[in-house]
Amino acid sequence: MTKQHISYSELKIFTECPYKWKLQYVDGLKGFTGNIYTAFGTAIHAVCEQSALGNLIPEDYAEYFDIAFLEELKELDEKPTNKLIKEFREQSRSIFHKVFPALQELFPGYEVYSSEEDLYEPISELKFDRFLKGFIDLVVKTPDGKYHILDWKTCSWGWDTRKKADKIINYQLTLYKVFWAKKHNIPLEMVETHFGLLKRTAKKNNTEIFRVTSGPKKVKNALTFLEKAVINITRNVSIKNRLSCKNCAFYKTEHCR
Question: Which pLDDT value is given to residue 257?
Fold first, then answer.
């Protein structure tokens, strides 16, 4: 039976390499299973989520992070050294106390609308039943009546101009905007999108929030990208993209030679 939903991470993998998508989503093989960087990101996300919901006060950020971080590390196949774990714990302290002051500076008088909101909406542009599945890190509402969708991204020092402009990265927010607005029956022009970079090793500005434009042209392009990808996924297209082999978990394994 065809799976009824598709996540943006699945779309991204299919765009990188349809054969890699087949190995993971058709054959059921495990791909990349995580490392200390993803464990760090998950723990930071947890602090942001609980703080936004009012379940966590600043004095408890460090303890909550450490517990979440160590739990994530237990699940890793390759265990990092204690020295590296200590470095990452220390680096976290320069991030989470700056997140909400940065939000207040950018969105004076904002209120939290939702945190870690589930998204599961029909892709009405298609002639067959499919749903877009996702999780929106944070939505805030400003006094002017606008809604702002934020997606937290942990990184080392930040993103360069090229990565900030990467259309595949940006389409995630654009599609979240379209389907979130549809879910809540809110006009698209009242919704804006932003990435929030949470930087481990930056010497200053450890939290950077920047807007990603998502006007009518980008919305149209993002929906076209979604439609073409889902149609090819439904057809089980599985062509190898040799240009994306370098960082693939299946590269030079028995599954892909």
Answer: 79
Determine the Cα–Cα distance for residues 213 and 195; give it in Å rounded to an integer: 11
Q: What is the reported pLDDT for 2?
A: 57
Residue 250 lies in a domain: no
Long-range contacts of 175-178 (CB under 8 A, 24+ apart): 175/8, 175/132, 175/134, 175/222, 175/223, 175/226, 176/8, 176/119, 176/134, 176/136, 176/149, 176/151, 177/149, 177/214, 177/219, 178/219, 178/222, 178/223
Please check the confidence at residue 1 and state whether its pLDDT lies above 50.
no
- The residue range of the domain holding 127 is 5-244
Query: What span, in angstroms and rounded, lies between the C-alpha atoms of 199 and 62?
Result: 16
Give the separation between CA 235 and CA 203, rounded to whole angstroms: 48
Q: What is the DSSP string of 228-247?
A: HHHHHHHTT-----GGG-TT
* CA distances to 64, 131, 191, 226 from 122, in Å: 36, 4, 19, 12
Which structure tokens are listed for 105? 């500076």
DSSP category for residue 257: -
Whether 32 is covered by a domain: the verdict is yes
CB 136 within 8 A of CB 149: yes
71-116 confidence digits (pLDDT tens): 999 999 999 999 999 999 999 999 999 999 999 999 999 999 999 9
Give, in order, the Cα–Cα distances in Å from 105 to each of 46, 58, 143, 207, 208: 22, 18, 14, 12, 11
Count, residues in the chain: 257
Count of structural domains within the chain: 1
